[in-house]
Each structure stands twice: as structure tokens, then as C-alpha cells.
Write a structure and sequence with these properties.
Elements lengths: L7 E2 L2 E2 L8 H31 L6 H13 L1 H15 L7 H38 L9 H18 L2 H5 E5 L4 E5 L1 H5 L5 H33 L8 H41 L10 H24 L1 H10 L2
Antiparallel strand pairs: 1-2, 3-4
Length: 320
């Protein structure tokens, strides 16, 4: 494994990456700007809708808002750096500000990723309790939400804190490079391969397995559900339809997250374990994978508005 992880091999700096055609650069810039606008506006609107509507202040919506707030990190930090990398492979800026940006440019997007997937797990648990045990107290009450949401932020901050120590800006004769110098900070006390394998398994692969099992159980329950105590068959049918609609939205959010984040996570692990360089410039497979992950922050608000009547009504109420 290269000590720098994405910039050098055995102390030899990588040659400059080939430039993209002008049309491709313009297309990528346009796509990034569109993601920035949709993500910033969409996630802000989701938060405002839930804040202003008392009937929507439920655990599932709190967790969706938590995802929305974490998704705001991506347009603010990742997109400007992403656009910069489309045009040059040199780091943005030197000095103290450059060092800070180097440390947070990977830390914040990964924090957003973990916050989102933990929120997805909590959403699945909430739906599991509502559908499988409809007559019992909620598995996650509204009062408990604040503690779970707080935990979704504390966990990634702690787990990803090594990135804040190993990343630094190094000045080469031809350019500045934001490098990961793992061995110089941790030596042999913490293997970078073991760290990334554990991180990917615990916070991406295992949560997706848990979510899949919960939603499969929910689907089977809904398929054969007969709710006791309903006043009429019509009331029971309406309740089951409402649960199905909420389930569709939750599954759509999870599917969008998987499509956007799994490719870049898998490829990053392949690069680390095969000693392959993850380029620090705008070569196609790097830029497009990162842009795909970033696009998830713009997709989630759209899914909420498409699948949820409550969110659509809340959006209309904002303009009245």
C-alpha cells in the first residue's frame, strides 16, 4: 500500500494526469452546478417542511431531515473541490487554509455518507416497528430521536478522525498535492488496509444487509397483514396502503443511496488493497464516480417529493 494513498509511489510523484476535452469539462461543470443547486435548495426545503408541519414531526421524518442536513455538507465542500479537479490536478491553495481544506475534503463527505446510512438503518427500524408490531409502542419514540440523531454524527466523527491527522498539503516543484501520509502518522500500529476494510464492512456493507433483511420482513408482513382492532375493512385497507407508500419512499431512498455510494466505496477499497493509485485529478473514472456519490444529495429530496403526498403538500404550503 502506498503511504500517500493517492499521490505518490515509493516517494516518486505521479506525472500530471491527462486533461479532459473541453466539452467534457463543460459538461462536468454543468452537472456539478446542477447538483449543487438541487441539493442546496432541495435539502433545505425538506428541513423547512418538517419544521413547519406539526403533523410531520415523526421519527421517520426526523431521520430524513437528518439525512438532508448531512447532505448539505456535500454541495458546500465536495462540489467546489470537484469542479476544481476537473480543470487541474493541483491542490486548491497552500498555507493554513489549504491544510484545513485538505483534511476535511475527504472527512466531511465520508461523514455525510455514514450519517446517511445510519439514518437509513433507523428509518428501516422505525418502519419495521410500525408494520410488524403496529399495536405496540414505537421502537423509536420522538423523544429518543434526538439521542439517535446525535449518535449518527458522533460515530462518524470518531471513526473518521484519522483522516484529520494523515492528510496534509505537500508542495512539489510543479504543484501542490493533498496527500494521505498514513504510515508517517500511525506507523505499523494501525494498518490502513485493516482500517478501510473495517470501515467499509461495519458502516456500509453490514448496514445494507440489516436494512435489506428488515425491508424484506416488512414486505412479507404487509403482504399478509390483517390488522386487528380496525373499525372496518376499509380503514384497514387505507392504513396498509399508507404503510406501503411510506415503505416505497424509504426503499427508494435506500436504493438511490446504494446506486450512488457503493460504486465509489468498492472501487476505493480495490485501489487500497491492490496498491493502485486513486488519482488526485480529473480522469474520467475518478470524477464520474465521485460525482455520482455527490448526486445522492440532490436525489433524496426529489424522492421525498415524488413518493410522499405529505412532502408535496408541505411544499405547496410554503408558497401559499
Amino acid at each position: 500500500m502506498s503511504e500517500n494513498g493517492n499521490s505518490t509511489i515509493n516517494g516518486t510523484h505521479l506525472a500530471s494526469c491527462p486533461s479532459n476535452p473541453t466539452a467534457e469539462k463543460i459538461g462536468l461543470t454543468f452537472a456539478y452546478c446542477l447538483i449543487f443547486i438541487l441539493s442546496s435548495a432541495g435539502n433545505t426545503v425538506i428541513g423547512v417542511i418538517v419544521y413547519k408541519s406539526k403533523t410531520m414531526r415523526k421519527p421517520i421524518n426526523f431521520f430524513i431531515v437528518n439525512m438532508a442536513m448531512s447532505d448539505l455538507l456535500l454541495p458546500i465542500f465536495a462540489i467546489p473541490i470537484g469542479i476544481h479537479r476537473v480543470y487541474t490536478d493541483s491542490w486548491l491553495i497552500g498555507g493554513p487554509l489549504g491544510q484545513v481544506l485538505c483534511k476535511v475534503e475527504a472527512f466531511l463527505p465520508r461523514t455525510s455518507c455514514i450519517v446517511s446510512i445510519q439514518s437509513l438503518v433507523l428509518i428501516a427500524v422505525d418502519r419495521f416497528g410500525a408494520v410488524v408490531y403496529p399495536l405496540r409502542s414505537p421502537l423509536i419514540s420522538s423523544k429518543m430521536c434526538q439521542f439517535f440523531i446525535f449518535g449518527t454524527w458522533i460515530v462518524p466523527i470518531v471513526v473518521l478522525s484519522p483522516d484529520l491527522f494523515v492528510k496534509r498539503v505537500v508542495e512539489y516543484p510543479e504543484k501542490l498535492v493533498c496527500e494521505r501520509r498514513w504510515n508517517k502518522v500511525f506507523g505499523e500500529s494501525l494498518s490502513v488496509e485493516y482500517y478501510f476494510l473495517s470501515y467499509t464492512a461495519i458502516f456500509i456493507l453490514i448496514p445494507f444487509l440489516v436494512i435489506a433483511i428488515l425491508y424484506l420482513t416488512i414486505y412479507l408482513k404487509l403482504k399478509s397483514q390483517k390488522i386487528p382492532g380496525e373499525q372496518s375493512a376499509n380503514a384497514g385497507q387505507q392504513r396498509r396502503q399508507k404503510e406501503r407508500d411510506v415503505l416505497k419512499m424509504a426503499v427508494a431512498i435506500m436504493s438511490g443511496f446504494a446506486v450512488c455510494w457503493l460504486p465509489v466505496s468498492i472501487v476505493r477499497c480495490i485501489f487500497i488493497f491492490t496498491d493502485t493509485i486513486w488519482p488526485n485529478c480529473g480522469v474520467p473514472y475518478h470524477v464520474y464516480l465521485v460525482m455520482l456519490a455527490t448526486a445522492n444529495s440532490a436525489i433524496n429530496p426529489c424522492i421525498c417529493l415524488i413518493f410522499s403526498t405529505n412532502y408535496r403538500n408541505g411544499l405547496k404550503a410554503l408558497f401559499r
